[in-house]
Amino acid sequence: MHVLKNLKSHSLMKSSRRNFLQHSLLGTAGLGLGIASTSDVHAAPVPSAAEPELTQEIDVLVVGGGTAGVIAAIQAGRAGAKTLLVERGAQLGGAMTTGGVAFPGLFDAWGKQIIAGIGWELVKESVELDKGPMPDFSKVPQHHWQNQVFINQFLYVILAEEKCEQAGVQIAYHEFPQTVTKTETGWQVECIGFGTKRRVNCKQIIDCTGGAEVVGMLGFPRLREKERQPGSYLYMMGEAHDPGRNQIHRLYVYGAESTNSRTVTHANLTGRKSILEALRKKKGARLMHMQPETGFRESYRIDGETLITVNDYRSGKKFDDAICYAFYPVDLHTKSGVKPEPLKPGIVPTVPLRALIPKGSKNIIVAGRCVSSDRLANSGLRVQASCMGMGQAAGAVAALAAKAGSTPLEIPLKEIHDLLRKHGAIIPGDV
Question: In this structure, is residue 28 part of a structural domain?
Answer without folding.
Answer: no
